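Tutorial, part two.
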Amino acid sequence: MPVQHKTFADERAFRATLDQHKSQLVVVDFSAAWCGPCQFIKPHFEALADEFTDVAFLELDVDENEDVTEALGVSAMPTFQFWRDGKLVDVVRGADPRGIKQKIAQLQ
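Running the prediction step on this input gives:
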């Protein structure tokens, strides 16, 4: 499943998208265009989306999603949040392709 690049008006809209994927793991990448480590990890994140086709992958630009970023307590980029059934189940901070892949394998 390709990475979905999303912009949300507020946290409620974000959670509505999570509800659309209740039956699967959702990995959310909080990144920014100006963030070097975010740009480094981007092709790895896209490759994981190709590999784990039963997992939903979302990318949120923190500058375009300030309300959601703040509401979810994201303060560093990149931050990867793992959601299942509308609940946050884990977080990986930093550009760690291996750590993200291991977390997906563990949670899926």
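Residues 36-51 form the longest helix (16 residues). In part three we will examine how such features are distributed along the chain.
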